[in-house]
Amino acid sequence: MKRVLTAFILLFLFLLAGCQSGETFEGTVIRLDEYSVIVEPSEGEDIRRSGTEVSIPVEEDLNLEVGDRVRVTHEGPVMESYPLQINLIEIERID
After folding, report:
1. Alpha-carbon distance 60 to 8, whole Å?
2. Integer Cα distance of 84 and 72 in angstroms
3. Between the CA of residue 55 and those of 2, 32, 38, 84, 87, what are the distances in Å?
4. Upper half-sphere CA count for residue 89 (Cβ side, 13 Å)
5. Rounded to whole angstroms, how far apart are CA atoms 66 and 38?
6. Cα–Cα nearest to 79, from 42, 29, 36, 43
7. Is the pLDDT of residue 50 over 70?
8. Which DSSP symbol is given to 90?
9. Which residue ranges form the domains of the chain, and what is each CATH number?
10. Got the DSSP string for 9-70?
11. How much of the chain exceeds pLDDT 90, in percent?
12. Closest Cα to residue 45, out of 88, 74, 66, 76?
């Protein structure tokens, strides 16, 4: 019984350790339209290995302008289309 309980606890801890709150990258807004923001990730960001433009769906006015520097937090897989697509958690303007 102790082995089963120990195995269950270890499995739970591995699953808990695998949960991430999201990945973050910084970049520059290069295009805006009614439903999305296109961001060019900064040099050195991991996401740049997959592509140089990221399409971020937006459902509200974020008061962003072309040229703004932003920090983007996303979750899940990066959809490797052109431009890349992500599941947005948060986008914020940075100075």
Report:
1. 43
2. 13
3. 50, 10, 5, 6, 10
4. 13
5. 9
6. 36
7. yes
8. E
9. 22-94 (2.40.50.140)
10. HHHHHHHHHH--S-EEEEEEEEEE-SSEEEEEEPTT-GGGGT-S-EEEE-SS-----TT-EE
11. 52
12. 74
Please give the structure tokens belonging to residue 49: 């290995």
> Which tokens go with 39?
């961001």
Question: Which residue type is seen at 52?
Answer: T
At residue 94, does pLDDT exceed 70?
yes
Amino acid identity for residue 61 in this structure:
D
Distance CA 17, CA 59 (A): 31
